[in-house]
Design a protein that fits this description.
The strands form three sheets. Strands 8-7-6-9-11-10 form a six-stranded mixed sheet, sandwiched between helices. Strands 3-2-1-4-5 form a five-stranded mixed sheet. The chain contains 21 helices and 14 strands. It is α/β, with parallel strands linked by helices. The radius of gyration is 26 Å and the shape is elongated. Strand 7 and strand 8 form a beta hairpin. The protein has three domains: about 100 residues, Nucleotidyltransferase, domain 5 (2-Layer Sandwich), CATH 3.30.420.40; about 180 residues, 2-Layer Sandwich (Nucleotidyltransferase, domain 5); about 190 residues, Orthogonal Bundle (Hypothetical protein af1432), CATH 1.10.3210.10. About 45% of the residues are buried.
Length: about 525
Amino acid sequence: MRPSSLPDNARSIPASIDEPAHGRIPDREPVAVVDIGSNSVRLVIYEGNTRAPTVLFNEKVLSGLGRGLADTNRLDDKAVASAIAALTRFRALCDQSRVREIHPIATAAAREAVNGPEFVAAAERAIGCPITILSGADEARFAAEGVIAGFHAPNGITGDLGGGSLEIVDVADGKIGNGITMPLGGLRLQDLSGGDVSKARGIADSHVGGSGFGPIAIGRPFYAVGGTWRNLLKLHMEQTGYPIHVMHGYSVKPGEIAEFLAAVVKSDPEKLPGIAAISRSRRSLLAFGAVTLQAVIQHLKPSEIVLSAYGVREGYLHERLSAEEKAKDPLMEAARELSFLRSRSPRHNEELIDWSTRTFTALGIAESVNEQRLRKAACLLTDIAWRAHPDYRGTQAFSIVVNAAFPAIDHPGRAYLGLANYYRYEGNFDPVSLDRMNGVVDPRMLQLARLLAALFRVTYLLTAAMPGVLERLRWAQDPRGGFTLAVPKDLAGLLGERPEARLQAFAKVVERTLRLEVR
């Protein structure tokens, strides 16, 4: 007998834990990276190793393996115990999550300490598989590989700041150039300087200034990787009231951050504005990350500082992908996954790509290569909020898109995708509640978002979000002036007052004379 508390339709909802989760991409086996760093020990479980990996589970323990290493050359016993306990738990979590492959990697602290081999042996027993000890060159290479995985055609200098070391490496045209490792990790720099920030700046200047990277770095982006820099720029976000809270792709010019870095260096971290957003365990290293970034700005003279949430872990997995998988656009792959998981018809969204391309071509709307790429991603994302209440679809779609864990997109691109989705639902092209985005997206991209959304609003009234219609629609130049959207006779029933009104709204945005006719 069924319990009375269950609804009548409960039998339609699979209850077995062995049933596939419909919020997951089918046929993917979880893969994990365990990163044993000088400051933290972290487990990241990904849904699968793909061009746009999605995190299933993420946990870190700040064991501080590298603390005091510069003075003693040994891993602290308490830090070792903390790390081993974390690794024991991580193994259990991997088993619970049915992870197919575990990739444990260890960096500077385990590599350099005299008791490192003893620790690694214990760590391998805890995690249940061999641990790969990365050299400084390995760290630099995988950090650069992570930037290649996380950005669209990156061309600049990667800087991975860990607890024990800083690796910088040249990245251009999808290839990894020369790299160098320096003892400037937060914990190491704190130890080497005796906690004196002024002395730490001198050490950082000496190493970065002598790195030889100045001539090739000047005027190019600097991709900042690592938890200390991530928290440093998160604090900058808080202090400036920046409207997007996704860290990946956050970009600042050196002149915009100079005063902020100086304040972090000289101030008590507990008294810094916005410090509540930063974990207490991370605050003590902010000043040391700041002096290293000051040295980078002074000696490498980058065009901008770009935060990368992709680093050694993602680079380690990316290197293991096939050439075919690496060649895919990670933004498009991520957008397709979200389309598959949340849209009424992923096939319809794919048809929107061709339809919008034909429309832009016919109406003479010019786009750059990157603008075309973003438009195609917007097509895949345009129906993800259909389950929401009609009054909130626009704002919910905007929030989902802007804050999604998309790789290979900058923040202006995020704003464009979010606004295209917002306008598609709301139809109001004056974003009163979203006006803060005007500081992120430029007027041209704002206009393109409005234009694409207006096209979507016509489209959905003709297709009901189902495939098979768009490929049969044609634009024709009208001898009376403007353009006519020709609809086949057997689809004439789809026409009506609302599609006509939407077409005229689109005509106003695109500044063309448009007609809707059966032909």
